[in-house]
Specification:
The protein is mainly α and about 90 residues long. It contains four helices and two strands. Helices cover about 50% and strands about 10% of the residues. It is elongated.
């Protein structure tokens, strides 16, 4: 196995994902962690927005406390996954 993509949603969901990685016979050459931020509201609201409206929303959030909180949460989640994977002997993590 060359590459594995892991969606890093939250810390609570990590146990099942990470335990399945521990059962892999051959370690992957690299692991890519992906965390997707939900800017506001629920997916139904943003699903009804046009691309230009979503771009405007993203621009309006830049530099705000809300965006900084989202970034901190993402960093916390990604660091948790990275630490857990490294503890299991997996090192090439992006």
């Amino acid at each position: 196995m060359k590459k594995v993509l892991i969606t890093a949603d939250n810390v609570l969901a990590s146990e099942k994902i990470l335990s399945s990685m521990s059962n892999v016979v051959t370690l992957p050459e690299s692991i890519i962690l992906l965390h997707v931020q939900q800017l506001v509201g629920n997916s139904t609201m943003t699903a009804m927005m046009s691309d230009s409206e979503i771009d405007t929303l993203k621009e309006s959030l830049e530099g705000t406390e809300h965006k900084e909180a989202l970034d901190r949460k993402a960093e916390t989640v990604l660091q948790h996954y990275r630490r857990e994977l490294e503890d299991r002997g997996m090192t090439n993590i992006k």
